[in-house]
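ARCHIVE CARD
SHELF: 3
SLOT: left
DATA:
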Amino acid sequence: MSGVDRRKLIYGGTAAALTGVGAAAYTAADTPRAEAVRQPRRAAHPGVVDVVADFGAKGDGTTDDSRAFAAAYRWAESRVDDHTGRTVIDVPPGKYLVTEPGALLAGDRPRDRANGLRFRGAGLRISEIVFAPEKADGAFLCVNDDMWQNLAFEGLRFTSGTPGASFFSSYSTGGAANYRFSDCEWMGEWEYGIALDGTNTNSEMRWEACRVGGAYRKAFLYSGLSRRSARPEQQDQFLNYWFTDMNVTYEWGNFLEFPYGGSVTCRAGSYVVTGRRPVAHPEYGFESAFFRFPRAQHFSSVQRFHAEDIRFELRGPDTVVIDCAWSGGTVHFNDCDDTANAFKPFAPGLRAHRYTLGPRGPLVRYDSCQLTGAHRFRTDASAPPPVCVRYDMCLLASHGPEDGFLALDEGRDGGFARFVDCVTPA
């Protein structure tokens, strides 16, 4: 039965030619198996396709599988009915070389908004997609141009084979939202992991049990690319991002950078920067930050950050936990620990938590945390901040409240901070 199409055996009937915009471009000359681009009629098809069995991908790490993935995506796009997707694309065990930008996802029809598409691998480090475009600048493996909501990626490893390529470009004026990544991993050197642009939505995104490895010239998640927005400030409508049970262990770069928007929750996991930027960045120098919020002015209700049950490993002075310039909102660390290297000589000099405080805060709170080094606070001399910073039942491993824990501007005092039942160095 090796010469018989397995789907004909399973579903029966006569195969019909693949339909839909874009799909007709993939002919016998484009794929190793002509029958791979033919599927049963939509009504009889269960909505699950396999990039190897159905579209001829090799997954051997050397064959360019761009056409196979592009054909699988166009097939999924052709099945959208009443703006609903109903398609699962399976990626079996293997290492898939992809050189064409947008081959995995090319949502380039914003007038035909769609809801629901799932990419399903065999598991972490079992199904790997290596993105190696000829030119890295502006090249994204996935592109969603205001078209798709409810996208899911499961059990996949994404590797940048061309240093400086990017994983995902998401542009939205209301049509791109609700992404879910579970049991996924990123490796290699990227410019952006996921770059958000547009004027609205790009919200409700979650990452669960994923590993963020590799390196990032800008950031793994960058909110507010502003390449196409007529009114960049509208990107403050981007909000609600959840990271749960993460292994964030990467070489250098920023993990989350939010020039705009931001209602962010990071709960449970290990966060480590293992190295140092190879060359100084014009904006960051040699530093890498887990959480970078560099812009002061925002709309209401989009300045909220919560970190809970996270172990931060600070391996040197170039690692920053948070650098926040918000002029309001809330920042909350609960049951977090960055003292793994508190015994090392560089630890007392760390300034890994940094804030700019104004007359409206932000409100900053640390509950039951273990903290190394000093916390840096920049203040506006013309408008002293209110009491807006609190440490409650925290272990201060390097300095006490009156002995250098608050790193302040010259001439300023720490009247904005309160310490409640904290433990300080002997």
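SLOT: right
DATA:
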Amino acid sequence: MPATGNTRTTLRRGVVAAAALPLLIGALASCGYGSEAAKDEPKGAASDVAADAGKKLSASEVRIGYFPNLTHATALVGLQEGLIQKELNGTTIKPQSFNAGPSEIEALNGGSLDIGFIGPSPSINGYVKSKGSNLRIISGSASGGVKLVVNPEKIKTLDDLKGKKIATPQKGNTQDVAFLNWISEKGWKVDPESGKGDVSVVRTDNKVTPDAFKQGSIDGAWVPEPTASKLVSDGGSVLLDETALWPDKKFVITNVIVSQKFLKEHPDVVEAVLKGTVKTNEWINANPDKAKASANAKLAAESGKPLDAKIIDPAWPSIAITDDPLASTLKTQSEWAVKAKLIEQPDLAGIYDLTLLNKVLKAAGKPEVSDAGLGAK
């Protein structure tokens, strides 16, 4: 009996599927997929092969920026474990590593970056300089992870900081603003531009700070992890954890931002990235030791070697991973920058757009988060 049209179509599909099967099995085997390899992998990682894994969203790629810092753990782990890529299916991630907020903002504003993990001060500066036209904060990522580490032979109490040289990563960055505000509240005077005054605020790249500390050219530093723990490993002592200065011991240290142009043109891609970050944060909080190892593996790929256990072990638990952008604390940080005369009074109305994040959180059965009245209208 001759084959009908439907039968011929079915046969053709069967032949194609059979031909493709060995290739698929080989590809999965080469990636380490299988019951044994997948035992300890996070739910939603690259090993979970989606039925529509080849399907692209509205953009063929998304360029994501981050810092090689532990305070950017969502990015480090999300990329290392494939949790963000999993949600994007066939849309490719192009990761980009940055050393400072201004360069990442420049990339976002210049159109060479779509989404970025970044601190609150660069977010504020980038939003204000573009008059609210270039970026939106779309999620939180991390809280805490900032410490004042000092030479215990020279500084034994907070009052001993007067007359000493204390490093911050960069003029106007998140830690610099916090330290200047702390100095002001002590009643001491420092010129915010030069850093000279009752305390010498020395703006020093985090990569250089440990050597400067060992050489004695600075007496301490107000810095994020893992720099803080590097200083401790070199003989420093933690004099203050910044979380102690905040209500509920929470303050935003890392946000997720997006180009407004990309958000408008590719909301499906942005939503997929947020699904990935929410799942990443959930996995990190449920598996802190595995997540710490994952973040360290990503840092090793970036720098050529992992962080020593004596650095990463004390650093990791001081960082709280969260989807909540802690918007009220960003507002406070902007007020500190104005008080320090580093920026004019900013209009931050519209800096947040948490619509897609709250959609993702609701679908996952998680509570929605607030923009503290600074949401896009």
